[in-house]
């Protein structure tokens, strides 16, 4: 190759190099069109092919107001949100209450008891404390026994009496229930003697459930028609309370002086027993009985021997309020 041709090629390469160097300096400095106008014009022929081959990032999209979209998760409406867990309705609160019933008769002619009236009531209250009784019925309670009960257990339990000389009373734990109303009725005892019955309506202090408690002491079978009369009066009262106060639960308990006849009669009204179901009501042998609205779910029936009553038995069960 001749010296002239070689020299020409070298000069061409040098010219090309001189043309590229200003573009590289401008690109490195990041200058804009205004500050680099003179240089950019001289390099447009070279930079155009490069710009065409290198894709540039697209500008942020704008909405109709001209503002750019945000990637903050708090405003990004396209964020995938997993469905929340469906809310499960809470079950109604229920509590279990201890129920106690017995005939508390303290007749001095009762040779089997061999203890005084005060001793009997002291035993009854001690057993109630042991069982943590919340609600109960005591049948055939004399005035001095009522005074003994209030002295021994009055701070724990309130007593609702009927005002009779020999009375049938409802007792309830003050921290468990509050009396909010009262109903009344009159039953019959021997020779048709009228017995005034106070029926306290109690509100459970935890659940708010309302319950009417009917204390019972019916005549013995040989006292003429009065046992049957009293049972019919009690059943009529239950029907009335159900009709006029549908939100009240009902408990009836005490000394019925009958076994299967009262059991089948009251369970025939739809009341439930902690001892047997309706199909086996004729199996009931105890004359001290308790029945309740089925919603109260009477259960855990226990019969406990005691010398604090001439019946020689006290009774326990549980109710669900």
Describe the protein's architecture and organization.
The chain is an alpha+beta fold. It has two domains: 51 residues, no CATH class; 225 residues, Endonuclease/exonuclease/phosphatase (Deoxyribonuclease I, Chain A, 4-Layer Sandwich), CATH 3.60.10. It is 31% helix and 27% strand. The strands form two sheets. Strands 3-4-2-1-12-11 form a six-stranded mixed β-sheet, covered by helices on one side. A six-stranded mixed β-sheet has the order 5-6-7-8-10-9, covered by helices on one side. Helix 1 crosses helix 2 and helix 3 crosses helix 4. About 20% of the residues have low confidence.
For the structure shown, list the relevant keywords.
Deoxyribonuclease I, Chain A, six-stranded mixed beta sheet, 6 helices, 321 residues, 27% strand, single chain, globular, alpha+beta
- The number of helical runs is 6
Q: Which topology of the largest domain does CATH recognise?
A: Deoxyribonuclease I, Chain A
How much of the residues is beta strand, in percent? 25-35%
Class computed from helices, strands and strand pairing: alpha+beta
Spell out the CATH superfamily of the largest domain: Endonuclease/exonuclease/phosphatase
Helix/strand layout:
Blueprint: H1 3-29, H2 37-53, E1 96-103, H3 117-131, E2 135-141, H4 143-153, E3 157-160, E4 167-173, E5 177-188, E6 194-204, E7 210-217, H5 226-244, E8 248-255, H6 260-268, E9 272-273, E10 288-292, E11 299-305, E12 313-320
Parallel strand pairs: 1-2, 7-8
Antiparallel strand pairs: 1-12, 2-4, 3-4, 5-6, 6-7, 8-10, 9-10, 11-12
């Amino acid at each position: 190759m001749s010296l002239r041709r070689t020299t020409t090629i070298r000069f061409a390469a040098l010219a090309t190099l001189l043309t590229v160097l200003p573009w590289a300096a401008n690109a490195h400095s990041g200058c804009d069109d205004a500050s680099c106008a003179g240089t950019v014009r001289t390099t447009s022929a070279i930079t155009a092919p490069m710009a065409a081959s290198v894709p540039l990032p697209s500008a942020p999209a704008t909405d109709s107001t001209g503002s750019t979209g945000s990637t903050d998760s708090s405003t990004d409406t396209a964020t995938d949100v997993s469905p929340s867990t469906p809310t499960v309705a809470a079950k109604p609160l229920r509590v279990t209450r201890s129920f106690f019933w017995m005939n508390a008769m303290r007749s001095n002619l009762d040779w089997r008891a061999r203890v005084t009236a005060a001793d009997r009531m002291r035993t009854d209250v001690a057993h109630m404390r042991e069982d943590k009784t919340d609600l109960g019925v005591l049948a055939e309670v004399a005035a001095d026994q009522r005074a003994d009960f209030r002295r021994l257990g009055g701070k724990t339990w309130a007593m609702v009496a009927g005002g009779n000389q020999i009375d049938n009373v409802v007792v309830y734990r003050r921290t468990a229930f509050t009396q909010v109303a009262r109903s009344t009725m009159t039953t019959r005892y021997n020779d048709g003697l009228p017995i005034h019955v106070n029926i306290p309506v109690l509100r459970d202090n935890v659940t708010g459930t309302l319950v009417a408690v009917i204390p019972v002491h019916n005549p013995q079978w040989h006292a003429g028609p009065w046992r049957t009369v009293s049972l019919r009066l009690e059943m009529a009262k239950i029907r009335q309370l159900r009709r006029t106060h549908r939100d009240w639960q009902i408990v009836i308990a005490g000394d019925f002086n009958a076994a299967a006849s009262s059991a089948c009669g009251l369970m025939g009204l739809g009341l439930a027993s902690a001892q047997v179901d309706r199909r086996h009501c004729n199996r009931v042998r105890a004359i001290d009985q308790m029945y309740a609205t089925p919603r109260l779910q009477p259960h855990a029936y226990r019969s406990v021997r005691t010398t604090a009553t001439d019946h020689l038995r006290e009774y326990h069960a549980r109710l669900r309020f």
